[in-house]
Structure formats: structure tokens, C-alpha cells
Amino acid sequence: MSINPGKQGAGWEAVDRYVKSGMKLGMGTGSTTFYALERLGEKLAKGELKDILVVPTSVETHLECQRLGIPLTDLGDPKIRGVLDLAIDGADEIDPQGNLIKGGGGALLQEKVVAHSALKFVVVADDSKKVEHLGTGFPLPLEVLSFAWPRVQKALEDWGAELRLRQGTGKRGPVVTDNGNYLMDVLFHQPIDPPEMESRLSLIPGLLENGLFTGLNPIIILGDSQGKVWEE
Ligand code: A5P
């Protein structure tokens, strides 16, 4: 696999700057987070970090942690009780206010639970993820109860949005998430107000989660194609 210097730089920097021994971490899903996992695994193996516990946000992240020898647990662990010291995750779009679109990898539901469980949230990305407005470029992912998707489609089309049910590759038919639900991707055609849209979407029955992450005040670490890394 070829290395992406921007993603690698951002992922490594998040671990080097923010992860301390003894922390309970939430780890997201995606190629940039996987560079952070790589760094975490390396530092644990060398003994530079100790007593780390990780709550993964997807089956893929769970498996990657197992492969790297990173200790895993879940939010119900008595040592955690729903509160993490830090979560590190990628993003599909980042606006100037620090609002995010996430869910390109289909893990948005667990990612949002983990981000909201963390005392500090660090977003890692290459600089191509920065946009002026969310929602008109990268389609907004939704996790939807399979029974409810036609109803969700109608509700969003009535708002003038364009939706599609995400289709699998490697299996015909819709993608089924780690939680057994469907994914829909929405284009709004016009800039949206992210906090307002996140709230409005949460009122639609059967729409289990949307990929807008607002109000979290994340630390954003970006990297570019030359491997230069900076915090926004
Ligand atoms: C996973 O569902 C997403 O939220 C990812 O965090 C997002 O797609 C970023 O992925 P990359 O780091 O692979 O760009």
C-alpha cells in the first residue's frame, strides 16, 4: 500500500501530541485513523506508552487493533462507564467552524457515540478535507433502519434533497452496517446550516444517525502531500 504523507503525518501527530499512558481512547474508522493506530501500536510495543484501553468504532477498527496488539474494550467497561479521555477520528469534510461530515466509511453511528463520550476530540485529515460549506460536495451519510428507508427518502426529498441508498461492492444490494442497518447518502444542492440540519435530521423516525458532527469543538490536525502537519 502506498503511503499518504498528509494522512500519515496527521495520524501520527495526534498520537504523539495527545495520547498519554493510562488513557482510555476512542478510535475512529478510516485510513487516517489507521495511521494513528499504527503509531499507537508501535509506541505500545516499544513501551513508550502503557495502560492504554481502546474503544473501537467499527469491526474494521476492532480487527486492526487486534492485529497491532492494542488492548480493546467497550463503553460499558467499569473502567470507562461511558467516558473516554480522548477520541481520534478522521473526517470526510471539515468547515471553517469545525463542523464535520463523517460516515464515508459507514461507521458514523458508533463514531458519533464515541466522539460524544470523549472529553477531548481530535480530528485527523489531509488538507483536501477542508471546505467552505458542508453538504454540497461530499454527500451526507445517514444510518437508517432498513424498514424505514423509503419514509426517510420521502421526508428528505420533500426538503429538496437528493438521496440514494448506498450499494455494496463485493455483495449485491444495499450496504448493511456493523449495526445491521442501511446507509443513505444525501446531497442538499445548497449550503446547509450544519447544527440546525443535525437537529432536524434527528427528528425523523427511523433515521438512526446522521453524519453531521457539530458542537464538538474538535482539535483539528491536518497534513499535506509534502508531509507538513499543522493544527487548525
Ligand atoms: C468513517 O465512517 C468515516 O467517518 C471516516 O472517518 C472518514 O470517511 C475519513 O476517512 P479517511 O481517513 O479514510 O479519509
Describe this structure in words.
The mean pLDDT is 97. The two termini are 28 Å apart. The protein has helices at residues 5-18, 31-45, 59-68, 108-117, 149-157, 194-201, and strands spanning 24-27, 53-56, 86-89, 93-94, 100-101, 121-126, 140-144, 162-165, 182-187, 207-210, 212-213, 219-223, 229-231. A hairpin with a 5-residue loop joins β12 and β13 (229-231). The relative contact order is 0.18. Helix content is 28%, strand content 22%. The strands form 3 sheets. The protein has a 6-stranded mixed β-sheet with strand order 2-1-3-6-12-13, sandwiched between helices. α2 packs parallel to α3 (59-68). The chain has 232 residues and is an alpha/beta fold. The protein contains 6 helices and 13 strands. The chain binds arabinose-5-phosphate.
